[in-house]
């Protein structure tokens, strides 16, 4: 369970049960709690893995409800919300709960367990995605090598770790990483220097691969000046026109 409002620091809850107990104690009588967590029964399919250290705990609708019940919340609703493309919002659970206390009851988790156990479907979907990306990138990479192009990857995160490990980009002539996070700029990531997007004019890349599943359209727009100069900007999830 994590809380990560846009453009703010990441708050990590090592012990979600203790965090809910603290929230329960601080709420006024009749107070309301709303929380959202990734939905383990509907994992996203991207180059980056759904199960990462970013989220220390995973929840199904029934397990989330059971934890709230155990604390003493009255659960008003547990909704399965759909993913919103290119917003950073994946398939998730939204729960609304309130005081006063309610007796704890054990909800049946058979359906959720069946869904979680069907990991083969997730692995098959991810494999198909990687194959599609390889088909898209392989001819470009050969051309970049042949033309001695200056290639950069935009995004210093877990997505890029898997992109450079699990796809054809492992063989690409990547010279560096672009990232908008000032804390990463001037550092190295996977042995490659991390630059600010403001340095692109000086770096004069020939190609930039966008390595971000959730923020692809925003990065595409950010790189509009580079595209106008003829830089080959490559999205992995959307069409080149980003319609």
Keywords summarizing the entry:
alpha/beta; Rossmann fold; 243 residues; six-stranded mixed sheet; disordered N terminus; elongated
What fraction of residues sit in β-strands? Answer: 15-25%
Quaternary status: single chain
Q: pLDDT under 50 segments (min length 5)? A: 1-10, 102-110
The largest sheet, given as strand count, sense and whether it forms a barrel, is: 6 strands, mixed
Distance between the termini: 33 Å
Morphology call: elongated
> How many domains, in number, for the residues?
2
The chain-level structural class is: alpha/beta
Q: What is the count of β-strands?
A: 11
Average pLDDT, rounded to a whole number, is 82
Percent of residues in helices comes to: 25-40%
Q: If strands are numbered along the chain, what order do they take across the biggest sheet?
A: 8-9-7-6-10-11
SSE arrangement, N to C: EEHEHEEHHEHEEEHEHHE
Q: In angstroms, what is the radius of gyration?
A: 21 Å
Count of helical stretches: 8
Write the layout of secondary structure elements.
Elements: E1 2-3, E2 11-12, H1 16-26, E3 32-38, H2 61-71, E4 74-81, E5 92-98, H3 110-117, H4 119-147, E6 151-154, H5 158-166, E7 174-178, E8 188-189, E9 192-195, H6 200-203, E10 207-210, H7 216-222, H8 224-228, E11 232-234
Parallel strand pairs: 6-7, 6-10, 7-9, 10-11
Antiparallel strand pairs: 1-2, 3-5, 4-5, 8-9
């Amino acid at each position: 369970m994590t809380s990560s409002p846009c453009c703010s620091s990441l708050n990590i809850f090592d012990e979600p049960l203790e965090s809910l107990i603290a929230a329960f104690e601080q709420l006024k009588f009749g107070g309301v709690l709303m929380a959202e967590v990734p939905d383990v029964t509907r994992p996203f399919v991207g180059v980056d893995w759904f199960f990462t250290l970013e989220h220390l705990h995973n929840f199904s609708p029934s397990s989330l409800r059971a934890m709230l019940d155990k604390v003493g919340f009255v659960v008003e609703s547990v909704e399965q919300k759909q993913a919103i493309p290119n917003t950073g919002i994946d398939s998730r659970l939204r729960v609304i709960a309130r005081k006063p206390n309610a007796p704890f009851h054990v909800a049946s988790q058979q359906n959720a367990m069946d869904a979680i156990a069907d990991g083969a479907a997730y692995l098959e979907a991810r494999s198909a995605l990687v194959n599609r990306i390889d088909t898209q990138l392989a001819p470009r990479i050969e051309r970049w090598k042949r033309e001695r192009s200056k290639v950069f990857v935009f995004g210093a995160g877990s997505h890029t770790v898997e992109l450079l490990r699990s796809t054809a980009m492992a063989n690409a002539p990547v010279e560096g990483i672009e990232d908008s996070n000032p804390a990463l700029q001037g550092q190295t990531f996977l042995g490659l220097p991390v630059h600010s997007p403001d340095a692109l004019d000086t770096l004069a890349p020939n190609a930039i691969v966008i390595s971000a599943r959730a923020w692809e359209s925003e990065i595409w727009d950010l790189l509009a000046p580079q595209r106008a100069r003829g830089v080959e900007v490559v999205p992995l999830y959307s069409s080149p026109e980003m319609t």
